[in-house]
Amino acid sequence: MRFGVTLPNVGYGGDPAILIQLAVEAEEAGWDGVFLWDTPYAVAPGEPPPGFADAWVLLSAIAVLTERVRLGTMLTPLAWHRPWLIARQAATLDRLTGGRFTLAVGLGAPPDEGPWFGGEAFDRRTRAAMLDEALAILGGLWSGKPFAFAGDHFSVREVTFLPRPLQQPRIPIWVVGAWPRDATMWPRRTSMRRAIRYDGLLPNVFGADRTLILDASPDEALDDLRAMRAWIRRERPGDEPYDIVVERRLPGVDAAEAARWEEAGATWWLDDAWWEMWNAPDDPEPLRRRIRLGPPR
């Protein structure tokens, strides 16, 4: 299992120099990945205005200052972007990193009152259809062959997109999936079915009441993880490597406990560092201390 840290590019993370230094320290401390939140963040009237920094610009700077650590977004709401721009940015980052980039995608979670900016699709069904089309466009463009696409939401006249990414057959794509809700639903075009067509699963676990579970106990989460792995092995064709990504806080988890998660099926553990940021929004030192401890090898 590999270990990554998600850097909060909001609050003190609005200062690019701080996050770039934290990413460099993460590589030095033995972390395997550094990921950044990718969203057009804004605040509603009456909320305190936090600083915010763009994930793609930060990842470019981090790319030239690191050599080993894998970089990625966590995550990109692909329906809110032009997919051909994401294709170009991702391919450029993949080459800049020497093939160390991972793209994580999902529907995005707009606030209850609607999108921050005009033009984004709000309802879930529309965003899901846009996500499917955008993923198809990424794959077609990254092939480096003549490609055209005509969908309900996006279209591409025939183009040849060069240079191709270094990673082949494509840049790894991790996709959010709703477990277990979308594993058994019909029709087959559900979030879990979407996820197994790509390279990794970012699971959102839902309870019987269809609400998202954010505080499952380790034993409950491990049971879900084993069930996900069994479902993926049964439903995903082929035997190519496939990632299951766990996002939880690492403090108090030692190497023996981490091994339990690996045995259950996790291939990546992303340390949920948001707790440190929300409790010290103006002070990066708690997160810096956490990063310097390194992962539980």
What is the overall shape? globular
Characterize the main sheet: 8 strands, parallel, barrel
Structural class, please? alpha/beta
Radius of gyration: 19 Å
Relevant terms:
alpha/beta; two-stranded antiparallel ribbon; 10 helices; 11 strands; 37% helix; globular
How would you sum up this structure, described in words?
The chain has 297 residues and is α/β, with parallel strands linked by helices. The chain is built from 10 helices and 11 strands. It has helices at residues 16-28, 55-65, 83-96, 124-142, 181-184, 191-196, 218-235, 255-264, 274-279, 285-293; strands at residues 2-7, 33-36, 70-73, 76-77, 101-106, 147-150, 155-159, 173-179, 200-205, 243-248, 268-271. The strands form 2 sheets. It has an 8-stranded parallel β-barrel, surrounded by 4 helices. Strands 6-7 form a two-stranded antiparallel sheet. The mean pLDDT is 89.
Per-chain topology:
Layout: E1 2-7, H1 16-28, E2 33-36, H2 55-65, E3 70-73, E4 76-77, H3 83-96, E5 101-106, H4 124-142, E6 147-150, E7 155-159, E8 173-179, H5 181-184, H6 191-196, E9 200-205, H7 218-235, E10 243-248, H8 255-264, E11 268-271, H9 274-279, H10 285-293
Parallel strand pairs: 1-2, 1-11, 2-3, 3-5, 4-5, 5-8, 8-9, 9-10, 10-11
Antiparallel strand pairs: 6-7
Helix pairs in contact: 1-2, 1-10, 3-4
Brief digest:
Helix content is 37%, strand content 18%. With 297 residues, it is α/β, with parallel strands linked by helices.
